Amino acid sequence: MAYLAKAPGDVKSFKGDGNVWFKIWQKGATSISASGVTWDVSSTQWTFKLPSSTPSGQYLLRMEHIGLHGASGTGGAQFYISCAQINVTGGGNGNPGPLVALPGAYRPNDPAIQINIYYPVVSISPGRNSERTLLMEYVFSQQATPHQAHPSGAASGLTLV
To answer: Count of alpha carbons within 13 Å of 17, Cβ hemisphere only?
Structure first.
């Protein structure tokens, strides 16, 4: 998953504290079957476009991978994160959201964080909206459904510097 947080000033001194993060991208399982869950493990990089409504400015970009191999028990999911400082130019005039705090957007027993790692697996996209209700995408079929991270669509003409 990928999140952005807009810095109120110079991104070099921005810590990203509070409800400032919004989800911009997510890649889920490629298939779910009685044999197990399949993930894209061959990719060494991820390419995605920012929502076109994202305002220009300095942002923290947070890439997050949630390891679910131990997620059958509360607190078993493992979070792997990486952050970068980026500058968005040529952006839009949107008001991105919902905004969440990271850490804090997930609870150890949320349905997307604590899961049955055995069949049948229910795939749920983690994250909370402004009313603090769980944003869930249930996938009961053999093929995972792509999750649209932002309703405004993909950006064109944005430059990451």
So the answer is: 3
